């Protein structure tokens, strides 16, 4: 390709960029700092808190405003953590920013894609994602538009053909002129439409938290109105007397810290993973990876290093003695390589070993296709092919089977270089193919591969190795890497679509897999109920990656694969995978634990509010009392426990689990305090005494549930719980006025001691009951 005929000058490109004709990327997922501040400040519950604060001020109950500093701190912490995570991600995106080869001033140069301008001429080759709409001006490429259209076919694009941004080059090489860039490009318009439509599907945990928050948001309004009407119009209390108890009931029903907990936990995970050279395109992928029970991996670049080396070139006869003939074929292969535009690690290895020369012109060529497993070049006198022996030799394969399998069993990849005498475009008849050379290639296995797969085996994660190479070769590599069931392998080229569902249950190693088959394997696994992660580094992995529950790409792989993935390993080190899974498990387990604490308060407050309305009673607690209990039972322990590593395997449904775990404590709280209120009214105990006793009862049950969900207790968890107890006691002693805690009468103390003793066995038996319910539910769910 002659670059002197194309390209803008640097000065012209700069002028176009300044005038707004640059390829500025549209990102429908990125948040600005202003977005983060708005999301943390202007929330529905903050509005409710604001209204309640105004009502408390109007009623003169200033000591009941203790919840306000905590709400302000919640918002500030959320803003700080999200901005911190955003900065880390922004830095990683700059480091890992996609680049394009552009012709400027008659020379090829590599620049970030957002520095391109309309009218630029870019050089596209295998693995490149097309970053703006363009038209081909020289050369020919095969393009896959599956990410845009859903169709997996490879489409040939010659001169004057249009290229749509968002598609990617499978093979070939061309020069294309950019016609639409930035927001005007096809992919940008799709992304803008997506932004105006419904948001991306949320993970199970986020959905569960949304349900909890939505339910609370719907209930607080009618409950608040009912409490106000009951207190003012039925009991005849004044506005000033009614508001504090109503606010206390509503504060207890609001899960104000759940979203904060979620954003902080995921934000900290993002920062921790970034330090380990892991970039998340989608934070939801942390949760998904924690649930994964099947991981599909490619051989090259995942199990093995990206460096590929030619081990040996052997004549098709198997002889190593005819040096002259071997040199002749090696030179011919060098001329063959000089005609191909392919840019991949196999081609680099071949070029390094055989060299390449452009002295001989070719009539036509066909770049390597992962679908057909070969490439071809036609010279004036003959046509030659290079690819997988099974596809090139077909009927003649039996003559070379033993020799090829001998190398395959050593973990070597075998290529065949042959002369083809057929007239058809595709190599279909092995009898017309005359093998000249067999080339063996090797990839060193990654040092950490064995430990990585050992970790997945311990965690109950099934590994499927999916590769385009010979299944015997892949099996041997899998064996050396420590993959379980490495000996259960199959040649995918022998499988029909109807065979794949059965094959994914029987085999762990798949060889000679086409890109479409990779996609079908992932779909079959998901249909069987598995949560699937797919790792890859090439364009042939993209379709499967997009269909997996979570996709992981090596940064050293193709640009298109990196852009399509949810998780990118910036140093292309597969050994980071256990760290990502562990991080996800830490997040879900710790959020589940803290969400349980929130639900205890929410369910108890709802039940007690309804009880007060039905029995025409004053809600027995004050806002400041709810504040201190929430602080020592939820806020402080939730924050510190969320920092602790927690690699427990994720099982069951998030919402169902947290509800069942919260119910024993919530019901214990409700029955204990409801009984305390009834008995206190019977014995004429003052309302202020009842509220103080109820506060201590709440705290006691809170510490019991905290100990239960922290089981088994270790030194760290024990210190957190004891520390919270100390904070509660100190707060009650030194800040008793602030938290509305006063000395109580002897009858009230006696009732308090009675119900405090009863809470432990009552809660213990309730816990057993709900564990039994949870177990039954799991059995029913598993049967389905």
TrEMBL record:
The source's superkingdom equals Bacteria
Signal peptide start and end residues = none
Question: Which GO CC annotations does the UniProt entry carry?
Answer: membrane
Question: Gene3D superfamilies this protein is in?
Answer: Calcium-transporting ATPase, cytoplasmic domain N, Calcium-transporting ATPase, cytoplasmic transduction domain A, Calcium-transporting ATPase, transmembrane domain, HAD superfamily/HAD-like
A Pfam family of the record is Hydrolase
- Give GO terms: molecular function aspect only: ATP binding; ATP hydrolysis activity
Q: Where in the cell is it found?
A: Membrane
Presence of the UniProt keyword Acyltransferase in the record: no
- Membrane topology note: Multi-pass membrane protein
Residue stretches making up the P-type ATPase A domain: 96-191
Presence of keyword Translocase: yes
What residue ranges are annotated as transmembrane?
41-59, 65-83, 211-234, 246-274, 595-618, 624-642, 654-678, 690-709, 716-735, 741-763
- Print the keywords alphabetically: Membrane, Translocase, Transmembrane, Transmembrane helix
Protein name from the UniProt record: Cation-transporting ATPase E
> Which source organism?
Butyrivibrio proteoclasticus
């Amino acid at each position: 390709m002659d670059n002197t005929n194309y390209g803008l000058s640097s000065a012209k490109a700069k002028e176009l960029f300044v005038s707004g004709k640059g390829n500025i990327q549209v990102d429908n997922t990125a948040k600005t700092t202003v977005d983060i501040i708005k999301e943390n400040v202007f929330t529905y519950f903050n509005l409710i808190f604001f209204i309640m604060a105004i009502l408390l001020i109007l009623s003169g109950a200033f000591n009941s405003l203790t919840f306000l500093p905590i709400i302000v701190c919640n918002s500030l912490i959320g803003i700080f953590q999200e901005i911190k995570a955003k900065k880390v991600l922004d830095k990683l995106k700059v480091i890992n920013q996609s680049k394009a080869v552009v012709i400027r001033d008659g020379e090829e140069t590599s620049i970030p894609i957002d520095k391109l301008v309309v009218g630029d001429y870019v050089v596209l080759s295998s693995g490149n994602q097309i970053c703006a709409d363009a038209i081909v001006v020289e050369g020919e490429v095969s393009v896959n538009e599956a990410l845009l259209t859903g169709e997996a076919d490879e489409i040939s694009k010659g001169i004057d053909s249009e290229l749509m941004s968002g598609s990617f080059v499978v093979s070939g090489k061309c020069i294309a002129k950019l016609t639409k860039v930035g927001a005007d490009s096809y992919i940008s318009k799709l992304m803008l439409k997506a932004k105006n439509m419904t948001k991306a599907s949320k993970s199970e945990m986020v959905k569960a938290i949304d349900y909890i928050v939505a339910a609370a948001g719907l209930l607080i309004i009618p409950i608040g109105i009912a409490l106000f009407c009951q207190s003012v119009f039925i009991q005849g209390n004044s506005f000033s007397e009614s508001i504090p108890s109503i606010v206390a009931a509503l504060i207890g029903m609001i899960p104000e810290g759940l979203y904060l907990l979620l954003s902080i936990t995921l934000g900290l995970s993002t920062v921790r993973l970034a330090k380990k050279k892991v970039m998340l395109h989608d934070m939801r992928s942390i949760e998904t990876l924690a649930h994964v029970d099947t991981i599909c991996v490619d051989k090259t670049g995942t199990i093995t290093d990206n460096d590929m080396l030619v081990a040996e070139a052997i004549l098709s006869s198997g002889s190593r003695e005819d040096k002259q003939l071997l040199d002749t074929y090696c030179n011919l292969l060098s001329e063959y390589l000089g005609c191909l535009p392919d840019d991949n690690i196999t081609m680099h290895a071949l070029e390094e070993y055989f060299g390449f020369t452009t002295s001989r012109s070719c009539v036509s060529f066909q770049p390597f296709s992962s679908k057909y497993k070969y490439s071809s070049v036609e010279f004036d006198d003959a046509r030659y092919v290079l690819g997988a022996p099974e596809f090139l030799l077909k009927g003649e394969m039996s003559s070379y089977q033993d020799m090829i399998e001998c190398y395959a069993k050593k973990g070597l990849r075998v290529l065949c270089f042959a002369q083809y005498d057929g007239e058809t475009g595709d190599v279909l008849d092995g009898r017309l193919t005359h093998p000249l050379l067999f080339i063996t290639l090797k990839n060193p296995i990654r040092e950490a591969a064995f430990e990585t797969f050992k970790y997945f085996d311990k965690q109950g994660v099934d590994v499927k190795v999916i590769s385009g190479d010979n299944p015997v070769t892949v099996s041997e590599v899998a064996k050396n890497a420590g993959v379980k069931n490495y000996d259960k392998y199959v040649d995918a080229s022998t499988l029909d679509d109807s065979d794949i569902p059965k094959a994914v249950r029987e085999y762990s190693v798949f060889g000679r897999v086409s890109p479409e088959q990779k996609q079908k394997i992932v779909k079959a696994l998901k249909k069987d109920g598995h949560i699937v992660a797919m790792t890859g580094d090439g364009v042939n992995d993209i379709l499967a990656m997009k269909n997996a529950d979570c996709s992981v790409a090596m940064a050293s792989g193709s640009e298109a694969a990196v852009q399509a993935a949810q998780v990118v390993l910036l140093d292309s080190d597969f050994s980071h995978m256990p760290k990502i899974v562990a991080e996800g498990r830490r997040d879900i387990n710790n959020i589940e634990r803290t969400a349980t604490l929130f639900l205890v308060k929410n369910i108890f407050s709802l039940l007690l509010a309804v009880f007060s309305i039905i029995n025409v009673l004053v809600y027995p607690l004050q806002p400041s009392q709810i504040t201190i209990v929430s602080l020592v039972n939820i806020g402080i322990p939730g924050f510190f426990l969320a920092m602790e590593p927690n690699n427990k395997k994720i099982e069951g449904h998030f919402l169902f689990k947290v509800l069942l775990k919260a119910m024993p404590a919530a019901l214990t709280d409700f029955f204990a305090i409801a009984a305390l209120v009834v008995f206190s009214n019977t014995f004429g105990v003052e309302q202020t005494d009842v509220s103080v006793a109820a506060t201590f009862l709440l705290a006691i049950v809170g510490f019991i549930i905290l100990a239960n969900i922290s089981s088994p207790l270790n030194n760290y968890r024990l210190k957190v719980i004891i520390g919270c107890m100390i904070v509660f006691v100190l707060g009650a002693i030194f800040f008793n006025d602030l938290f509305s805690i006063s000395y109580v009468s002897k009858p009230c103390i006696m009732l308090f001691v009675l119900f405090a003793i009863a809470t432990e066995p009552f809660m213990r038996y309730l816990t057993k009951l709900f564990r039994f319910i949870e177990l039954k539910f799991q059995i029913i769910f598993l049967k389905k």
